[in-house]
Amino acid sequence: MERVIELQQITKQFPKKLALNNVSFSINKGEVVAILGPNGAGKTTLMHIMLGLLSPSAGEVNIFNQPPHKRKVRDKIGAMLQDVSLMDGVKVIELLQLFTTYYSNPMPLQLLKQLTNLSETDLKMRTEKLSGGQKRRVSFALSLAGNPELLFFDEPTVGMDIASRQKFWRTIQQYAKAGKTVVFTTHYLQEADDFANRILLLNQGHLIQDGSPEAIKRNVSRQIVSFLTHSPFPFPAFKKLPYVLNIYEKENRIMIETNNVEETIAALFAKNIRIKDLQIEKGRLEDAFSQLTNVEELEGNII
Amino acid sequence: MRVLFYQSMIEAIRLFRNFAYIFWTLVTPLAFYILYTKVFLTDVDNPKMWQAYFLMSMTMFGMMGGSIIAFGVRIVSERQLGWSKLLQIVPIPGITLFMAKIIGQTIVHAIVIVIMFLGGFFINGIELTLSQWFACGVWILLGTLPFLALGTIIGTIKKADTATGIANLLYFPLAILGGMWTPMQFLPETIQKIGKLLPSYHYGNGAWQVVQGGAPEMENILFLTSYFLIFMLISTYRRKKKSLSNVEYIS
What we know:
The complex is a heterodimer. By secondary structure, chain A is of the alpha/beta class. Chain A has two domains: 3-212, Rossmann fold, CATH 3.40.50; 221-281, Alpha-Beta Plaits. Helices cover 33% and strands 28% of the residues of chain A. Chain A has twelve helices and 13 strands. Chain A has helices at residues 43-50, 71-74, 92-102, 109-116, 120-123, 132-143, 162-177, 189-195, 213-218, 235-239, 261-270, 285-293; strands at residues 3-13, 18-28, 32-36, 58-63, 77-80, 150-154, 181-186, 198-203, 206-211, 223-228, 244-250, 253-258, 276-281. In chain A, strand 1 and strand 2 (18-28) form a beta hairpin. The longest helix of chain A has 16 residues, at 162-177. Chain A is elongated, with a radius of gyration of 24 Å. In chain A, 36% of the residues are buried. Chain B has one domain (2-240). In chain B, 78% of the residues lie in helices and 0% in strands. Chain B starts with a helix and ends in a 6-residue tail after the last helix. By secondary structure, chain B is mainly alpha-helical. Chain B is globular.
């Protein structure tokens, strides 16, 4: 596998806050990686370090085996950052054209125009007259202007409506299929679950999890075994079992919350309970997230 | 090279589309010029000479405004709006983008100078030789360098509002004390002493000399060059200090 990003023991100390603490990972070509974490976890700082906008206090970062500020690196990356307004006093089409001159292997202008999803009249509009959503789409097009091998998105879908959001992710998926690498931060767990094949979970500057969404969900100990049964269910006997966390009935189904699925099912058979339609509900990413970061309020389920 | 060309053109076009910029560098100076040579007629010995003299003053007044206020504040607001952050990750060196800003600004300045000169020619029928017009134009254009350098110092100020305030505080005293409004010899003697130390006076005097049939004095060139170097030094120092502190928000 071709290594695209490599971080070794990155620490970033701000005057009043330790933003990143000894973070190491590497990302290979073709991966779509979500950086997740509660507010203040260090997501944006991490992204800025990978982009060479910030230098780490300690540790080493390499993009395409070179320091991130090298021109050769910049030629192969694109980014959509937070809190970046567009250059004013230019028409959208002029801005797109300008950006294609920056790169050695730019994306054709026609393709970029399509990505903004703006009409020919809109393309002739000044950037300062665009709506927030239109600006985001232009920013997205700018990130792709250099036909990059590696893309960074910091909270890309904030402020996008549902249609733009879907179009955005469709484009990203096509891009990933073509073997490009994508790194994005998000608050929306659902986005990470749906579109990333790897999640880096940050909390208070520490990298606390690194794996596929499935693997991270598997780390959630709580799972639910549910089934239908005709015979009366011996609730007290099961409540006593050490690995059973909770039992209740919901829509005629017996629901057993457990941290050991195998033992629970073995117990069901041992007690000769006739069950139908057995289902095992794996943990949700939300659960993993809150369990791992101890964050109560979550901003998920937006899609 | 292609990037430098394209970027410079874009910067020039942006300036032309910026109403406030055109208002302060072209419309206001031209309006004042008409006001003081057509409406309030000053009692001068040689009206034709005064008309040419004041045309140069007003053109340079506009150039200074464009360089100190518009150029400086623009740098600040582009940084504040985050646009310059995106430019930091494109494969173009910062110096190229900075050069393009200067070139774009100079293109616009050159056009403003031509329009001002045409104004003077058609409104008052100013009679200067071709070489005088040319010498004045070149002097005025090159003489903006110290003021652009001053603009880059303004550009290191953190907030756009503060930058605008400070730029205005510098601009008007510089212009008035330098003799852009009332010719130097009519100002009180103390003011004259101060004025003759300022870059604005030496900028103005170069063109005034040409209009009166002479050439810029060596002293003018030396003063402007020194100011240019000092301003560049300060602005480079301030930028270095800034990038070293490297403090950004966390999220």
